[in-house]
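hey can u check if this looks right to u? its 380 residues, i copy pasted from the old doc so theres a chance i mangled smth
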Amino acid sequence: MRGLTSAILSISLLTVMAGAAMAPALAVIRSHFADQNPIVVQLIVSLPALFIIATTFLFRPLCRLMPTRTLALTGLLLYVLAGAGAFFAADITFLLLMRALLGVSVGLIMPLSTGLLSYYFPPEAQGHMMGLSAAMNQAGGVVATLLAGLLASIDWNYPFLVYLIGLIAVALVIVFLPSEYLATSGTRIRLASLVRFHPSVTAMLFIMILFFIYPTNFALTAQQQGLTTLATTLIMVGLDVVALFVGLAFGWLMRRFRRQMKYAAPLGFFAGYAVLAFFPSLGGMLAGSALIGLANGVGVPYVNTIASIKGGREAAITVMPLISAALYLGQFISPLIVTPLASLFGGTNAPYLVAVAIAFLFLAQAYLTRSHHALPPAES
């Protein structure tokens, strides 16, 4: 069972790297493509999300056509080829094509990274396993961000080699993942699934909209407070480290505070962004970043746990593709929502004020849908 667990968790290590891994290298890449429209260059980070969303809605029919191991290997090999293939890009068109294919690959493996946990593990173990999955996701973000930043110092295209990490998952899946069919009937995700699982899908959308306010605004805030680039990077990586340790402890937290956990993410985001908005000092930035890391570290595994328990063994082909689509849709639309609203306030703390308001709506959503949340079985 350890081998199977390692294979599934290795997939979780990769999914966050689709867009976030390139963020530290974006300035170098933008300099290389200085003749291109900056919006086109920005697509290097955001384009995979659109293709991830589109691919997740093809996931169920693919599960009917392909056994689990074949589907996982198809996604992982495409991940490595498209991710690292961008290293050889001679023009922006080829580079964006590789990024689009990377999005397709993540759309294939993302539902498996959580759905297979609900398929192979009983409900009482899923809180712990979803916490480990979230921790691996955060670990992937830390490793990829640091490696991409270091590789960017060599040349603009070297950061794309970070996707070769996917070969580790390829090896583990070949050796340990069983070849089973997750779906034997049905060809598409039905509207009824969205209606049934709307509390979890909406919650994941809120989490991603709120979380991505931080990386798109924090560097500017830190710069205005006189922090160096290194200090800013360390604080932002520190947020991922907080989320990683919270993920590792999530199983214990879920057993200890089963009924209160639904409010932890919205309250964490509310408090974190309030601190950033009203206490723009070094201490405030550290405290606010830690609270946001805590909120993200709790929120993602909580939503995945509740969704997987409610979806049962079919979660991988019913709710998890919807959760994946909501996750990446939230990442994509976050700046599209927040930037116009922040312009109404003005000031560098305006995005954080918007975040406080959105966190309040998230808290209200958690309260109003509390009867829809299936709790994991209590520890015997």
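The chain has a mean pLDDT of 85.
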